[in-house]
Design a protein that fits this description.
Number of strands: 9
Distance between the termini: 35 Å
Keywords: CBS domain
Shape: elongated
Radius of gyration: 23 Å
CATH architecture of the largest domain: Roll
Protein name: CBS domain-containing protein
Largest sheet: 3 strands, antiparallel
Strand order of the largest sheet: 1-2-3
CATH class of the largest domain: Alpha Beta
Number of helices: 8
Organism: Kineosphaera limosa NBRC 100340
InterPro entries: CBS_dom, CBS_dom_sf, Diverse_CBS-Domain
Structural class: alpha/beta
Pfam families: CBS
Strand content: 15-25%
């Protein structure tokens, strides 16, 4: 599964000079955990995440602390003041399996998707979850259609909980082609290709 097949595009984004309140409203209304920050040319220059907002956009409440009354620094006003610069991103042709590893071993909940330096979408944990949930019968229909489109109708296809079992005659190259076709279908989690039993 490739990023371009499941990413959200176009992505919500903000500019460095956007007001933090406007970004907060967008995140709350659209239920997103981060916003790519782009310049006038849609070039990715940063990311504004929940963590950025939590760290810098709220002043401590003196009622909860024994603090002397003192002049505090002004709260930041624009996204550019608190965003994370030089953010991690991915590309449309990246393997979703690699992103799953990143999502499960880090605090990242989403990543901007770029073509060159320009923002083209966002991929999130939620996008991956939605892509993984498909009924086996729907997957099998899509797999059979994909095999037919590539002129590979000789393979037997079974699906169980997103795991695809392909059986048929063919050399190692043909088995690799069959596996590639199966992997191209959205929702396929794993593919096994086995030669048909002789006899």
């Amino acid at each position: 599964m490739l990023v371009r097949e499941i990413m959200t595009s176009p992505a919500y984004s903000v500019r460095p000079d956007s007001e933090i309140d406007d970004a907060l409203q967008l995140m709350a209304e659209r239920k997103v955990t981060a916003l790519p920050v782009v310049d006038e040319g849609e070039v990715l220059v940063g990311v504004l995440s929940e963590i950025d907002l939590l760290r810098r956009a709220v002043e401590p409440d003196r009622r909860a602390h024994v603090l002397p009354v003192q002049e505090s620094a002004p709260l930041p006003r624009t996204v550019g003041e608190i965003m994370t610069s030089a953010p991690r991103s991915t590309t449309e042709g990246s393997d979703v399996a690699d992103l799953i590893t990143l999502f499960t071993t880090s605090s990242f909940k989403s990543l901007p998707v770029v073509r060159g330096n320009q923002l083209v979408g966002v991929i999130s944990r939620s996008d991956v979850i939605r892509a993984l949930w498909r009924r086996d019968v729907d997957l099998k229909d899509d797999l059979l259609a994909a095999f037919h489109d590539y002129g590979q109708d000789g393979w037997r296809v079974q699906v169980n909980s997103g795991v695809v079992e392909i059986t048929g005659t063919g050399d190692s190259r043909e088995r690799d082609i069959a596996a590639a076709i199966a992997h191209s279908v959205l929702g396929v989690r794993r593919v096994h290709v086995t030669p048909a039993p002789e006899g």
